[in-house]
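Hi C.,

You asked whether I'd gotten around to modeling the 190-residue construct. I have! Everything is below, sequence then structure, no commentary in between.
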Amino acid sequence: MYETDFQSVVGSEETILWQGRPEKKCFIIESIFNPLLPFALFWAAIDLTIMGGLFFSKVHFEDISSETVILLVFFLVHMMPVWIYLIGILRSIRSHRNVEYIVTDRAVYISGGSNRYYYEKKTYQELEGVTLNQGFFDIKLGVADIEFKKEKEKQGQILRNNLKTFAICDISDYDRVYRLVKDTYEKAKA
């Protein structure tokens, strides 16, 4: 185990059983190969082909008209889906340094964020189940995700952060951590 500022959110009556971070390689690869990749590639291919035809059809740069410049600016803006995809990858790379997990005898803590730092805590009483998940890249890179099913949210309750799922993602010692979390969860629910 190692000492970080994230440990300060753990209650004094709790015992840290495990602490870790996601494997960076898998974390980044999964952000690149997301469902938007084919769409971004297709969009970029079309726009770059048109922009290349407009821009490189002019033999001399002095011959570029204002209409050509306007069209180039238009296509740069038109490529917004590609920019959004690329920004998503950069945000994921940047956010990796803030992602950390702590498992205690009473709760699970997950931190994250790219522009701001936040954490979420769920006690074992708030969880409905624990599952182990391995996607294609997880299998290839020897990591897995431990996902937690949260209790049904109360109708009308506003979520206070942007964590999509409550999960410990992309960890290499997933077998040991899964058994540890599953045993602690079952003891807490008994």
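If it helps when you're writing up: The radius of gyration is 23 Å.

Thanks,
B.
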